[in-house]
Amino acid sequence: TVTVSERPTDLTLTRLGTGLDHVHLSWTGSSSRYEVFYSLGGSDNIQSLVNTTHTTYAIAGLTQGQRYEFFVVSDGNDDRVLPSAKSSIKSMTLTLPSVSDFTATSTSNTITLTWIKPPIPSNGY
Predict the structure, then answer these.
(1) DSSP summary character for residue 87
(2) Is it the case that residue 90 has pLDDT exceeding 60?
């Protein structure tokens, strides 16, 4: 008998504050193996990113301004178990964070700069 692996669900994509080119994927599933895929800008050129036994994966080295789409498939555990249908697709375009409410106030010999930092921690503040 041949069966099909259970489809991963609840795929989430989170941009990490540890770097401007890092994201974290997580999903729910009962398989013992998963394969993570991505494409650039919704293209048909789908690439395998990693095979893993975990339901989370951190990705680094992504390019600013590029749109990425990710999905996960449960791998079959042996020759009698086929890979699942893909999870829902999650996409993200990485952009550089920018400050808001930037103001400069000057007095006789002092300039005071104030701003609201972006929601993602960045070096240089």
Answers:
(1) -
(2) yes
